[in-house]
């Protein structure tokens, strides 16, 4: 109970401090503050237009896709084809990067292996079809192909390394607890 009260006080003091900082910037640099507020409101509007549908789709995924299906295709015992599944999922999804994190959390909750969650996040950040089409239009297909051939193996390797460290951390917690 004492910790909750202390957290609430700290949160309140932090909020007051942030409001004071925003007010100070507004007074000292009115033009900059207006542009910052405009940018913030634009970002907030974009986020509020994307996130509700994303959460609806994640809710449908959570209800309609059984856990054993996820575990079979992208779980700990899934083979190399799971990498292909994660890349396809990442490529076909649209939206900003912050939209990938709720999907990653839903996959993790359903039993997706940590390495495949990390591969999904990496592939989502560089391989979405709308982004690729835009890149090919302006930079050419050769550049896009070389970039994909360089970044994809890196994300796969990072996914396996981070998945291994996650597995080691889980085993350490299991033996300590």
Write up this protein.
The chain is mainly alpha-helical and 177 residues long. It folds into two domains: 1-49; 65-176, no CATH class. The protein is 86% helix and 0% strand. It has helices at residues 2-28, 30-64, 67-74, 81-92, 100-109, 114-127, 129-139, 141-176. The longest helix is centred in the C-terminal third of the chain and has 36 residues, at 141-176. The protein is globular, with a radius of gyration of 21 Å. The model has no long low-confidence stretch (mean pLDDT 86).
Order of helices and strands: HHHHHHHH
Helix content: over 70%
Beta-strand fraction estimate: under 5%
Rg estimate, integer Å: 21 Å
How many domain regions?
Answer: 2
Mean pLDDT comes to 86
**Biggest sheet, in brief?**
none
The global form is globular
Identify low-pLDDT runs.
none
Tally of DSSP helical segments: 8
Helix/sheet category: mainly alpha
**Total strand count, please?**
0
Distance between the termini: 24 Å
Map the helices and strands:
Layout: H1 2-28, H2 30-64, H3 67-74, H4 81-92, H5 100-109, H6 114-127, H7 129-139, H8 141-176
Helix pairs in contact: 1-2, 4-6, 5-6, 6-8, 7-8
